[in-house]
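pls design
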């Protein structure tokens, strides 16, 4: 099978003028995608994306019922794009129309799961900050890019015909991550399954929070907006200095969601001071937003988001045998309890205190 895939990739590159490029494999992530850097004979570089369609369950059909989505699997339930190249292409086109820096698509075969992209370079936010770069400048720019993105009401379908549907981050999608926490945290922590009483209380506490997310679903949501997916492009101007990657799972969602992704970053510590500065900058740029209501939504949806990420990391360890993700757990618990410090979430905090043995937060 791999030899067939290798031949398909070689044929695609040759047909699009990249057959002579030197191919350099790039480190992978927790997805089923593979990336290579193409070094062109005449100079210059491109990125080669390989997403075999057969490795993922199907994405969500726009008109599928909740029961149909559950039957299709996790991607459809959570409204994930299943790595589809046509989703990446359509989302990239929309972002560029807003003056934002998504990679240009040089060549693509969505049916085969292959694409050649503009190479935005290696200056990931996370690596630059590790090297001593000014964190404030980078986060200010990332905040301004979200302000720009949230100024536009996104269309229901992105890109040219047939396009890619920008579906809402609806109740089932929001609920799915929470339910997976209930499934995977006990497996990771070596605990018995949660009791029926605990599960019922969980649902009662989260249902009104999910409703706030659904009611506020009004903007293009990158969905994975954090320091490992943002590239600093200082030679560009304004919000275009923020290069964006890994946005193919975009949905229409509450604007607090991407701020939570940025500020509740599982792979690096974001201080309470940086969090407060980003939120203040964002709200100052959007005076039409009710700041108190927005911050309450941010804390509530941020708690849901961090619980979702805890499930993802727990499954990586307990389900896929990737122990390195355990190192991220204490950070996520700190973020969760930072959100749960909101007095409105006192009952939810009590649920976690009562039902979960968590990782040390120190």
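designed seq:
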């Amino acid at each position: 099978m791999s030899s067939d895939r290798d031949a398909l990739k070689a044929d695609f590159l040759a047909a699009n003028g990249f057959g002579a490029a030197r191919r350099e494999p790039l480190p992978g992530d927790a997805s089923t995608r593979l990336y290579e850097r193409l070094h062109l004979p005449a100079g210059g570089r491109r990125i080669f994306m390989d997403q075999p369609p057969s490795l993922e369950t199907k994405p969500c059909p726009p008109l599928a019922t909740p029961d149909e989505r559950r039957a299709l699997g996790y991607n459809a339930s959570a409204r994930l794009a299943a790595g589809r190249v046509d989703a990446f292409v359509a989302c990239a086109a929309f972002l560029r129309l807003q003056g934002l820096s998504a990679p240009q698509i040089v060549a693509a075969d969505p049916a085969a799961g292959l694409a050649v992209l503009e190479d935005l370079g290696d200056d990931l936010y996370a690596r630059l900050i590790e090297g001593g770069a000014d964190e404030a400048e980078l986060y200010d720019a990332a905040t301004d890019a979200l302000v720009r993105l949230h100024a536009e009401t996104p269309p229901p379908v992105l890109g040219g015909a047939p396009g890619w549907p920008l579906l809402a981050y609806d109740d089932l999608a929001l609920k799915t991550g929470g339910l997976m926490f209930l499934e995977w945290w006990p497996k990771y922590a070596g605990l018995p399954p949660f009791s029926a009483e605990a599960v019922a209380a969980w649902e009662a506490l989260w249902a009104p929070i999910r409703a706030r997310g659904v009611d506020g679903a009004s903007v293009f949501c990158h969905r994975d907006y954090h320091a490992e997916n943002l590239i600093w492009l200082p030679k560009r101007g304004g919000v275009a200095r923020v290069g964006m990657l890994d946005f193919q799972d975009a949905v229409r969602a509450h604007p607090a969601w991407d701020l939570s992704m940025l500020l509740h970053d599982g792979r690096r510590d974001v201080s309470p001071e940086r969090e407060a500065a980003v939120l203040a900058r964002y709200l100052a740029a959007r005076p039409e937003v009710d700041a108190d209501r927005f911050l309450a939504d941010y804390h509530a949806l941020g708690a849901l988001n961090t619980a979702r990420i805890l499930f993802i990391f727990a499954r990586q360890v307990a389900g896929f045998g990737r122990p390195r993700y355990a190192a991220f757990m204490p950070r996520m618990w700190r973020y969760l309890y930072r959100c749960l410090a909101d007095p409105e979430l006192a009952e939810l905090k009590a649920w976690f205190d009562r039902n979960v043995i968590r990782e040390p937060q120190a």
